Structure formats: C-alpha cells, structure tokens
Amino acid sequence: MEPFDSVFNHLVLPVKLPNHKDPDPEATGAAILTRLKNACQVVAKDTGDDAWSSIKRCLGKCKGIAEAHFDAQHLLQDWADLRLDDLCLLRISEQNAALLIRRDIQNEEHFVIFEVFETSPSAKDVLESANALEWDFPGRAAQIPLHVFQHASFQENMSRFLEQAAQEPLHRFAARARKAGATPVESRDTTDPGLLTQFLMPILEATGQSIDTPKLRKRVRDDVSISSADFPWRREPSWLALRVAVQRQLCLSMGNECGRASYKFLICTMLARLLKDCVGGLSPDMTFVLRAKLCRRLAKLEQEKSKASGSACGVYQKLFDTVGVQCEDIIGKASRQIESAWDNFKRTTTRRIPLLPSRANERSLYLTLPRSGDHLRNLLLQSPANPANANRLDLSLPPLEKTVVHPVSELAARYFKLADLESNVQQQPFLAANDSDQAGQSRCLAIAESIFVLLAIDEFKSYTSKPDQMSLFILRVFELWVGMDKCAVKVCRLLGDYHPLFPAEALDVLHLADLSAMHRLQEVQSYLKMRRNSCKYPDENILCRPSTNCFAARYLQEDENGRPMRQLLEKIEEHSAASRAAKILEWEKACREYDDLSEKISSGTCVCTFNSDGSRSVHGCAKCYHRRVRKRMTIKVHEDFLPAESAQKSTVVFELGIPPYLQAYRHATWKVLHKLGHPGPALKASSPIMLLKSYSQLEPPTTGGRL
C-alpha cells in the first residue's frame, strides 16, 4: 500500500511536517517513482513527443530509488543497452549522491558522460537558509571514450564499485559533531558525497577528460524537523534526483526552453493527480495547501508563456490545451469538494437555539420535588420537641481543628520539635585528643548524621522570618561541621591541605544577642581561618572538579590508606585490557565474516522475482539472503572501563572505594552549602544519564559484575 501521507509531505512540503524520519524510506521512494511514471505516461499520451520515450526508459531502469541497493549484473545489462538518447540514473544513498550516465557525439566521436551531484544538503545549510537553496547541477562531470566504457574490465570494476558504494557507508565521509574535544560521527546529518565527487570523478577525468556541461539551476527546498526521535525528518533525496534527471533529459532532447516548459507541466500533472487522490483522503486544509501550490505553478507558467520565444510559445500553448485543461478540471472538482466539506462542517457545528413558547404549560407551574418526598415524610414522623429542654445549653466543645487555638498549637509544636532536635544535637560528643582513628571515623559519621537530621526537616524554615533564631540555628550547624571536620582531618591529614570551603567572613552577618553565642561564633570563625591559612591548596576543596591536585587524585597516590584503591585501580585496568583484547578478536572474526559475505554477494546473481502487485519476492535468492545477513551483523562497542586522563581515572576509583566517613563528610558539607549557602532554590538541572554505581563494567563481583 502506498504511504500516502509520506508522499504528500515530500512532494508538497507543507508547513506542518512529521518530527521523525519516515519509517520506510524505500517505500516512499518507490511510491514517488510510480507517481512520476504515471504522470509521464499522461503527458506523453497528450503531447505525443518522442522525447518522453527516453524519459520512460530512464524511469524504468533507474537504480537506488525504489530500493537503496542494486545489483552489479543489472547495471551491466543497462549499460549494454545504453542508446544515444538514453539516460541512466543511479542514486547512491549511502554516499548522498546521484550519478547520471549518458552517451554523446562530439566531432563524430562517441563518448560516455558521467555527471554527479549531491542529493541532500547538510542540516546546517538547510537551517541557515531563509527560504530555498540555489544549486547548480551537475556538481562535476567527466567524459570517457565509448570504446573505453565498453571494455569488459572497466564495466566490471565500475559496476562492483557502485554496488559496494550503495551498500557500505564510509566513516571518512560521514558528518561529524564536536563534543568534549572529540569529533564523533553525527548520524543525524547527511554524508559528504566525496567518494564519488573526489574519488571516482578524478579517476574518470584521468581516463578521459573533465568537461563543462550546461548547468541546471534549481531551488532546493528542504527542512530539518526533529522532536524526540533519533533521526530528523528530511525531504526524500530520491525526489530531487528524479527531478534533476528528468529535467536534464528533457532539456537535452527538446532544448533548454521547451524542455523546461515540458518539465514544469510534468510536475503540474503529478501534483494534479495527487490532488485528485487527496480529496476525501486527507484533511481539507492539506488539500487546500496542495491546490494553492498547483494554482501558483499554473499561474507562473502563464507568465512564462507570455515571455517565451516563438517555438517555445507553441509548446506552452499545446501543453496548456492538454495538460492545463486536465489540471483545471481537477482543481475545480477539488474546490467543490472543499466547499462541500466546509458547508457540512458549518452545518454540524452551528448551534441551534430553539424558540421559547409565549406561555408556560400547566405542568410547568407545579414543583414535583421527586427527591424531597422521603425527607419531608421523615420530618412529619419525628416526635415533637420537649419544652422542658428548650432552654438547656449545649456544653460540648467544638473540635480543636475548628478553633483559633489550633494554628497556634501547630506553630508551637513545630518550634518544640526543632528545639528538641537542637538539644539532642548539642549533646553530641566531639573528638578527644587521645581517640583512635577508628573512633574518629565513628564520630565523624555520627556528627554528619546529626547535620543531616537538622537540615532534612522542614521546621527549620520557620526561622526564615526570624533572623535571631535562624542565626542560632546556623551557628549550631557550623559547630557541628567544625566538630566533624576536626574528626576527618585527624583521621585523614591530607584533608587539611584543602580549603574548608566556608569562609569565616560569611558568618559575620549572624544576629547573636548574648555573649555566649558570640564566643561560640568566635571559636567557629577562628577554626575556619586556621584551616584556610594552613591549607596547601587554597583554590581546591573536596567538592572541586577532577584535576592534578584534586583531593581524590592525591588521596589515591599519597595517602597511606589509599593502597586498597591503588590495588583496585590495577585490577580494573587489567580487566579493561582483557576486555579490549577479547573485543579485538571478536571484531576481527566479524570482519572476516563480513568479507566472506561480501565476496558471496559480489560473485552471486540476484534471481528475485516480482509479484503482481509490484513487490519483490526474495524466495530462493542467495545473493539477497547474504545481503540481509550482512546487514543484520552488529557488534557492541568496547569502552575502556576508566578514563584515559590520570586525574579523572583517580576520581572514578576514589568514588568506588571512598571510605564511609569521607563520604559522609563530603555529603554533609554539600548539604550545608546547598541548604544554607544559596539565597534561593537552585536552578533545575537535567538528571544524569547514568550514575557511577549503575555502570555495569565497574560493578563489584558480589553483584555479578565484571570486577
């Protein structure tokens, strides 16, 4: 079945386009080719010009339009039947190029001319263009003597080369993107046609000579539409290749002016037949867009007719009398269908307001109350009220939630909870001078947990409007942080070489009312100043990015407790090297299998048949089977388990084996900075694609990973 919507989008190029690539580009190309053949048949029947015979032969034998690949044997058959007025069109989709091959006679010598051009512009050029791109076709041309072209070895090598070029993309000519200093392949952009324009054409020029053929200038319209899909929507390159080939052949056969007029009417015929099929199949607005496009083309042809020369004016008049009349008839039917659909829409959407009667009927003057009967009967059945209890007061109190006292009690409960937490935290013991490293780690973890508890509750936000209370809260948090930092520095002396992250001057703004709180603040600030003055790297802290002097790199290389991490690093690198070697063996095996399949494809012959509906039957064709097997071949990418840069490598290993007390210290430091250091909520950032603990290549052996 024809992908009608896809064909409409590529031929008409409406404003609203899909946000993803067509699911079956080959089916779309085949449908466009079929429509162009039908339009060519109509115009040839009406005009009776012999030039259309060569156009029909060209469209019947073109390669790379309905199917991305083609067989070298079929090319040899087409080249054997190549006549003087024939044109061979080859679209090499993997190289983003098309090749036109035709014969020519110059000074009674026979030549074969090769013309190559690009079939799809780059996304950058399309997005930068305000309207349409102006291209000259062909991009490059060369000619060789006919006897050289007819040589068996030349045709054999040429056909194999084109067959392979249509099947295998080359990364050398692929589009590139720049990301993090690298240039990976950008699969969403078009390929550079350099394999044909810069490799094949120089060989042909050396075999024959370079020629300057008459240029054909066209306005190329395209779009790049992408939303959440992997690949954007782009206009079908086959449509551009077909248009260039047809107009090129018509201009060569009929002359530039007459050929251009015939080509324009051919496109009008194709759009008119599409409009005829659109009526009732697409929405009226899409039909209206196509009708407007067809009318504009016919109006431009009317203007060109008035400026045409004598011989061309006769061609214009003949085409208007035949093709133009058919187009006008289709436009009239489409207009009537659009008007009918519009009238029907207005009838179905118009709100009908009924007339109100001048007087209400008798039934409308009575209230039926169908839902009130049971309630009224229950009221009648109730016993009469006792007069003795009429003056008794109701001593029951309303629920607490409905009184003014409730919000006050909630506020008090919040402050009581916060005060209890601060009191419990204040009783947290700090590090003693004779404590062991194990005790220091335990107390560092305990103090960090206390910081998490204080900063995790929402009640401390109640202090926002009370500077004095908030100042005491911040002071208590920093007292805890100082105690935690002392424990961490005692266990890991390397931590003292780095900036404590918090400047002492940042606490000068605290509002403290009593002398004891000021003394506490002075102790905290004195410690922060001491840490800042004694640090070896004043521009580095535990939260800095990986660098040569970052904490993670120096801990792994210099700290006495970093030996397990160094052993882990060696183990990861050994596993990475083993995985890389295994992947190389797998890749070499796949390359041998790929070459074997390619040899079978090259030496085989396609024996596919075609069904009555035009579909291809591949049953029994070994060549197509080997081609499908080769196309399904895949290999997973090997990625080194660790980055190549030393500091990044050390940081990754540090994250894998970080001691719990340092992890808690760093997390608590970040919490204090995040909760108290920002004047408002932080900007929303995108979520990371993957966490380090989710990276399968670095999972520990206890979870079934590779290490």
Automatic annotation (TrEMBL):
Pfam families for this protein: DUF6606
**Record InterPro entries:** DUF6606
Where do the DUF6606 domain residues begin and end?
7-276
**Designated name of the protein:** Very large low complexity protein
Taxonomically, the superkingdom here is: Eukaryota
